[in-house]
C-alpha cells in the first residue's frame, strides 16, 4: 500500500508579523480566532489525508518541545510523529534533503512525501485533498509536483508559475504590480504555493543531478547525527558542525526551477516537474493585513481583537492582548499591542515591519527573540519586572515536569510558591514547599524544581545579582537533553 508522509517545514522568523511573531515564537505558533495555531492546522491538514502513516516535521532544535506540545493537543488519533531538528536554518533544500534521506531509510524510496509549510492557511480541506490526490498520481508516475494557486488579485509578494494545464512553462520571480496585473489577465499564471509532492527516492535522484553538493553534505550530516526513538516517535538531532557545511539554497532554486527549465543533464530520467492548479482557499498569512482579514470587519471596516474603543476610526486592524486601546480619528492603520511592545503602522507600509524586526535583532534587543512569557519544556515563565540587579518572574511548571539540576554563577534566587506543591533540591537539602512557603538559593549552589502533582505549580522567583542573563546557567542533569 502507498505510504504518504506529510512533511512540515517549520522554520523562518515571520518578521513581518512582529510583535506577535518572535524568533522563539514564530508565525506558525500564532493562534487564530478558533484557538488553533497555524502549525496545528498544518498538522491536521496532513494527518487527515488517507494512507498517512506518520507526520514528519523539520524544525529548529529550540522549537522542538514547543512544536511537540502543539501537536499533542490536536493529535487525538495518536498518529506517529517524527522530527528532524536543525541547529540553525540552511533553507529548504537542506531540510527536504534530510527529510527525504530519513524517509528512504525508514520507509523506502517509493514512500510519497507531501511537503507543507507550517505557516500557511488553507480554508477548503476537501479541495486540498482533491489536489493532493492528483499530485500523488503524478508523484507515483515519477514526477516532481508543485501546487499552483489560482490567483484572485495582482499580488506582488508571491512568485508565479506560468502553466499550460499541468505543464510548467516557467517560474517567474515576484513581479511588479503592472506585471502581476498582466499575469492575472492572462489566466494561465498561478501563485507558487511552496508546497510539493514527490516520492522520496525521486527527489533524491533529482538532487543528485541538480545539487549534488547539498545532497552529499546532508547525507554525511545525517549519518553522523544522533537519533532518539520511542513508541510512535522519532527524533533526529542534526550535528551542528556538519550541518553548517551544507550549502544554503532553496529547493526551488536548487532543484525545481532547474528541472522545469531543463538546465540539467539527464533531467528526463527524473520525470520532470508538473503543477497541480488548485483553488483551496490558500493564504501564506504574510502580513498584518492578511492576518487581520481573518477577523470580520465592522461597519467602518475595522477589524478588532481584544478590548478596543473606537471613535471616528475606519479601516484599521487593532489587536490587544490584555489592555484597553482607544482609537480616535484614525484611518487605515495597523495597531498591535503586546505586553512588551506596540506596533503602529500604516497599511500602505505594512510589509516594512520586517525592518523594525531587523533593527531590534541587530541591536540585540530581546523583543525580537522572546515574548515576556517564554515557553520551556517544563512549562512557562513570565518576566513581571526587572531592573538593575533584580528580576521577578512568574513560573508555571506542568504536572509531572521538572527543571534541570542547575546552578548560577552570578545570581541568587528566592522561590515563593503561589499555588501547588514544589519538590526542591537546594544544595544538600531536599524540601517540599507548599503554598505561601519559600526557599532561598545562593549563587553557586545546585538546585532543582519539580512538580510531582497533577496540578500546575505556580511560583514567584525573585532573582538578584550582578548579571541576570538566561545564559548564566550550568546544567548537571536534565530530562530534556539540554546539558550544555
Give a structural overview.
The chain is of the alpha/beta class. It has three domains: 280 residues, Spore Coat Polysaccharide Biosynthesis Protein SpsA, Chain A; 61 residues, no CATH class; 105 residues, Jelly Rolls (Sandwich), CATH 2.60.120.10. The strands form seven sheets. Strands 1, 2, 3, 4, 6, 7, 8, 9, 10, 11 and 12 form an eleven-stranded mixed beta sheet that branches. The radius of gyration is 25 Å and the shape is globular. The model has no long low-confidence stretch (mean pLDDT 94).
Could you write a compact summary of the structure shown?
This protein has three domains: 4-283, Spore Coat Polysaccharide Biosynthesis Protein SpsA, Chain A (Alpha-Beta Complex), CATH 3.90.550; 302-362, no CATH class; 373-477, Jelly Rolls. Helix content is 24%, strand content 34%. It has eleven helices and 30 strands.
What descriptive keywords fit this protein?
484 residues; alpha/beta; Spore Coat Polysaccharide Biosynthesis Protein SpsA, Chain A; Jelly Rolls; 3 domains; eleven-stranded mixed sheet; six-stranded antiparallel sheet; 11 helices; globular
Please specify the SSE layout and strand pairing.
Elements: E1 4-10, H1 38-47, E2 54-60, H2 64-74, E3 80-86, H3 91-107, E4 112-117, E5 121-122, H4 125-140, E6 144-149, E7 160-164, E8 167-172, H5 177-186, E9 189-199, H6 200-210, H7 212-223, E10 226-230, E11 233-237, H8 240-243, H9 251-260, E12 273-278, E13 282-283, H10 288-292, E14 303-305, E15 308-311, E16 317-320, E17 325-328, E18 333-338, E19 341-346, H11 353-362, E20 373-376, E21 379-387, E22 390-397, E23 405-407, E24 411-419, E25 422-426, E26 429-433, E27 438-441, E28 447-450, E29 457-465, E30 474-477
Parallel strand pairs: 1-2, 1-4, 2-3, 3-11, 6-12, 14-16, 15-17, 16-18
Antiparallel strand pairs: 4-9, 5-13, 6-9, 7-8, 7-9, 10-11, 18-19, 20-21, 21-22, 22-29, 23-30, 24-27, 24-29, 25-26, 25-28
Helix pairs in contact: 1-2, 3-6, 3-7, 3-9, 6-7
